[in-house]
């Protein structure tokens, strides 16, 4: 099964002016290890697409398949389990918990998934080490640079060994040089793990380094 497949996905919102049809039959398939850039103007539905793909919102039509499982047929608990274990999320603003250390931030999703504490700690140290943060395990986010914070956020997204990574401007708050470095590490880890990635970005240089580019046109996913 493909790690991720969207079939004829529809999503509309009720507004005062009537129904706003944001996704109107979106199709997209990602193979293992495939890294796809989602590049589209603001307001065209990127966040909606990522939320539906990440099982945070249910589509109004069509279906999202995660490793072949039709998410629409699943209850909320099963969908939460997939969100925790099979999908990793990275955001523009890292959303790290400020009162926890880097290591603890990477442990939390593992603990939520039932990993024993010692194993979660070991894995957090291992992943943070892969991102060059071995000397930063006990630092709280406020003591880390922007690039380091974003690396911790990526490490957190990888903590439960997901098969699909969804990212919304993952380096959008970093200066160009730092964004390039962090993005290199993200790509290297994703390729090394054979992760399917859908990465929304406005940065054409980053998009050019991915395997293919898609955009949204009239609520559909088309080659970018
Ligand atoms: P993008 O991420 O490309 O900027 P979004 O997916 O955030 O686009 O939004 C697409 C369109 O849907 C926009 O016109 C936005 O205002 C609208 N929209 C998004 N979420 C909601 C919502 N919860 N209720 C009503 N309209 C929404
Ligand atoms: P938990 O109870 O473990 O926090 P959630 O259902 O809230 O479970 O979140 C599960 C996953 O979904 C987490 O990895 C979280 O980062 C992600 N998530 C939660 N809310 C959002 C959101 N608004 N947009 C994108 N991802 C989200």
TrEMBL record:
One GO MF term: ATP binding
Keywords carried by this UniProt record: ATP-binding, Nucleotide-binding, Transport
Signal peptide boundaries: none
Organism ancestry: Bacteria, Pseudomonadati, Pseudomonadota, Alphaproteobacteria, Acetobacterales
Pfam families the UniProt entry points to: ABC_tran
Keyword Protein biosynthesis on entry: no
Keyword ATP-binding set for record: yes
Domain (ABC transporter) ranges: 4-222
InterPro entries: AAA+_ATPase, ABC_transporter-like_ATP-bd, ABC_transporter-like_CS, ABC_transpr_LolD-like, MacB-like_ATP-bd, P-loop_NTPase
The protein's name in its UniProt record: ABC transporter ATP-binding protein
Native organism: Sediminicoccus rosea
Family (UniProt): Belongs to the ABC transporter superfamily.
């Amino acid at each position: 099964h493909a790690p991720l497949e969207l079939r004829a996905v529809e999503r509309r919102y009720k507004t005062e002016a009537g129904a706003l049809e944001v996704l109107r039959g979106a199709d997209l398939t990602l193979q293992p290890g495939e890294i796809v850039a989602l590049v589209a103007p603001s307001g065209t539905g990127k966040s909606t697409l990522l939320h539906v793909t990440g099982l945070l919102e249910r589509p109004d039509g069509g279906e999202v398949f995660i490793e072949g499982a039709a998410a629409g047929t699943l209850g909320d608990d099963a969908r939460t389990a997939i969100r925790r274990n099979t999908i990793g999320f990275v955001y523009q603003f890292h959303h790290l918990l400020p009162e926890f250390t880097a290591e603890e931030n990477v442990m939390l999703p593992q603990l939520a998934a039932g990993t024993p504490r010692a194993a979660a700690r070991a894995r957090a140290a291992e992943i943070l080490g892969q991102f060059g943060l071995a000397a930063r395990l006990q630092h709280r986010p406020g003591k880390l640079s922007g690039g380091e914070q974003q690396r911790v956020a990526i490490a957190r997204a990888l903590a439960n060994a997901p098969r699909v990574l969804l990212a919304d401007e993952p380096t959008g708050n970093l200066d160009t040089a730092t964004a390039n470095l962090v993005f290199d590490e993200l790509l290297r880890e994703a390729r090394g793990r054979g992760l399917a990635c859908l990465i929304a970005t406005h940065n054409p240089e980053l998009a050019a380094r991915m395997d293919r580019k898609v955009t949204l046109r009239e609520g559909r996913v088309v080659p970018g």
